[in-house]
UniProtKB/TrEMBL annotation, chain A:
Protein name: histidine kinase
Keywords: ATP-binding, Cell membrane, Kinase, Membrane, Nucleotide-binding, Phosphoprotein, Transferase, Transmembrane, Transmembrane helix, Two-component regulatory system
GO molecular function: ATP binding; phosphorelay sensor kinase activity
Membrane topology value: Multi-pass membrane protein
UniProt xrefs under PANTHER family: SENSOR HISTIDINE KINASE YPDA
Amino acid sequence: MKSFIASVVKALQVRSIQFIITTSFTLVTVLVMLFVGVMLYSKFSETAEQNAYLNTQQILEQVKYNLDSYLNAMTQIFELVDDKIRNNQGGSDGKLNEQLEAIVETRKDIVSIAVFSRSGELLTATPARQMRNHTQITEQSWFRSAIEDPHNLSFSLPHVQNLFKGEYPWVVSMSREITVKGSHGDIPAVLLVDVNFKEIDELCQRVGLGKKGYVYIIDLVGNIVYHPQQQLIYVGLKNENRALALKHSYGSYVEETEGDKRLITIKTIDPLGWKIIGISYMDEIVTTKKEISRFIFWLLIFVIVIVLLVLSYLSEKISRPIKMLERSMEQVEQGDFSVNHPITGSHEVQQLSLRFHLMVGKVRDLMNQNIRDQEAKRKSELEVLHAQINPHFLYNTLNSVVRMVGIGKNEDVITTITSLSKLFRISLSRGKSMITIQEELEHVRHYLIIQKMRYKQKFEYEITAEEAVLPCKTLKLLLQPIVENAIYHGIEQMADPGMIHIKASKSDGKVLLEVKDNGLGMSSQVREQVLAGTYKSNSGSGVGINNIHERIRLSFGEGYGLEIESEIETGTVVKLWIPHVQDES
Amino acid sequence: MCRTRAEGAVEMGKWKQLVLYLMLILLALTAFYSCEARFDAPVDKKKTVALIAGMKHGDYWRTVKLGAQMAAREFDLNLNFYAPDYENDPQSQIELVEQAARDGYDALVVAPSDEQVMQKALEQDNKQSMPILTLDEEGEYPMIRSYVGTDNYEMGKKAGEKMLAIIGKLGQVALIGSGEKQANTKRREQGVLDVMNGTAGVELVATRYVQSDKRQAGDLAREVIRSYPGVEGIIALDASTATRVAAEIERLGLQGKVKVVAIDSPPEVLEYLQEGVIQATIIQNPFSMGYLGVKYALEASEGKSIPKRLDTGTKVIDRENMFWSENQKLLFPFVK
């Protein structure tokens, strides 16, 4: 958990890879999701709205179709009744009544069939029932419209039939003028077929438009044919904008009443001119829209959360090896070159890690090399310092001088002391490490002079040099230890007088310093030991031959150094190869 | 040493993190689906209103129910309609009120048969703080939130005035009713009396009440006519009385001679009206009662303030206007 919080905090570091990946991808995702969400929302809500419109249209179309076919069926019955009456001219009333009764019986929704004279007297009625008083037939709308428009079948508004005793049924009256045969010839009359309104009422009641929506029907002039809340309208508790609906015969519009937005859809039943008006409440459509928007909102949040999680995980996975690499580098920076754990991760990071570790390895090797080199240099410099004032040599020399003074060899004393002084002067040479070959040769010459005094002319020496190499630079005190070795190991134990040949020459662009003696020589085994610096001798200045080799190489590089050629009983040749370096001045 | 521990921690952390991420994703998934599930479930709970009517049957109460159902549909609430099988059955109504209190409703609309019912209802109200409205029967109950129904005094006045108009403000008038002690009847009577007393030429010769058997109304009418042969008109204070009075007058062959003004519009009254036995009737508006009763019950349950008294109005119907289209739906509420 802690590590998770830490990773979150790290992810918040503004310029970290993790942060950049997470934020940029999240931003992109959010933008894309927003775009998609808005598109989806508008598309969905558009579809929802369209569906609502279409749905209402379809329902109304269905209602219209049902009403149409119902009214058509009723019209056909009316025509049938009309036919029967027409064809019965002259026939017996009883037969006609039977036929009409059969029609009324088969169609339960036919309430009554009646014929009235123009003055409103009942001529015949099926089923035969007693008339009520005070019916005011001539005042009734169906009677008046039959008289006014004698040739067309007229449909009345639904009304309460008050003609016959018994119940008061709600009917729609179909009426038309006909002629019937009376006792004094043909007389005009009105045929009335009353159809129970129940069928239409139930048909309309069944229609629901959403939770609250409903359907109502008005006639040509706006009278209510059917309305589920008719009572409320009559007592003024509810108002329906019928005037506006009257202006439309088809189509739909949105109306705002009492804060409710309602979608009004209108269809017209053609022959009658009745208008079916569907009311659907917009807030129900809007509810669908709200649901969609809420759904999309949650979907958006959900996707963003998922994307954030996945991204922080991914970016963490990507950036962690880089961070580890960074940590390794930090370690290296602080001087710990021991880092060596390959980092797993993406290919690039692996490669980076590999190269880094290779590099660190190289650096580590180089540094170790440097350290070794520095150590060797310091050591050899110490040795040189030691050689400069070799106390043992000084003591031996001064002893010889005392001895010489004792036996009165003043000249020898002078030579020895002079040489000694020159020797020291050159070996100190004001602290410089490089001197000319001439000086080096001078130095070794004075050394040989002193040694020759001490060893009572036990050996001879010769120093030759090419004129050209004399001003060349060399490390100081290179030759002296070699000469010392030649005396101590090569010549001292020899019976015959020895010969030391020192030569400075130029060869292959390099300078070659050669010390050749005819002493005892050495075995190749000893030679190897000497070169490796493992040979132990109990005399001499203590400056190892191998150190001279090292000094040369440290100062001048790999191409230079020391070589030994030796043969037992024949002598030894030590070659020093140094570069041809001229002093600028 | 240090390095290996760090590596181990990284390895462990990796697994922990993976598990953590998985768990978070799972959590988000469940949150998402639970949110989605909420869409399907109905977001807000519908209110439920109980209406306890005077009787299960009869056009009057059925019209009340129709109005109440219309309101329930329009305002999107659940309506439970209860009623005893017979009118004036306070015992059954008390049981229904108790049952309603046990079931628990957001509001209760009662058309009480008598004061006992109201008493009971008020007890329940005290216990449950459920708003109670009365319908149809106006009593003196200060605790009731609202009365929705007819102004019976006004109705009585209209009946009296109509009678005066019919008889030409001159002559003897009698009053026959039932349920003497009922508040509605008292108010109607008061309305009639106030009109009669204010008119010089008119004399209210008799006020009779049916005691136990409603069929007595006919006898009462006969007795009044015999006692006061000059009686011009009889005002019947309720529908059943009116029907019986009209039947008696028709039997005596006095239709048109003794005018009848009735209250309410059952089919029998309407038949007599068309036949000319009853000259006029004062109708109430049960549809509005049902509709407004439920509407205001809902508003009361939502804590809105509602009028203490709501007059649903009355209308004078005579033979002249009974088949006018705007009256047809009021007089004949059901399509049969």
